[in-house]
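Regression test case RT-17, inverse folding.

Input:
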């Protein structure tokens, strides 16, 4: 597993929810298998731990952003130059 390039990360962002969930399951399974190999001293490529953990973190971040409705880097938020008044500001206007 090579390090993720920008195009590979973009490919992850374009996955639908089902494919994203399958990728998360596959990454967790790979991580489990790597732990088993390490425990039995059969692991030759220890760098796969870090790569798999980082990939899993990316996948979970994308999944969390979608669940929270946070825009991805592909679709930046539309900036609004007007701001919402907080409850404190509204009370100050009513009192003053």
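Golden output:
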């Amino acid at each position: 597993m090579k390090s993720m390039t920008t195009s590979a990360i973009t490919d992850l962002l374009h996955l639908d929810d089902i494919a994203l969930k399958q990728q998360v399951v596959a990454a967790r399974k790979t991580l489990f298998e790597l732990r088993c190999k390490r425990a039995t001293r059969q692991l030759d490529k220890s760098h796969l731990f870090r790569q798999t953990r980082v990939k899993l973190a990316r996948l979970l971040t994308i999944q969390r952003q979608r669940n929270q409705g946070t825009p991805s880097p592909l679709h930046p938020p539309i900036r609004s130059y007007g701001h919402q008044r907080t409850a404190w500001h509204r009370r100050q206007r009513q009192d003053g």
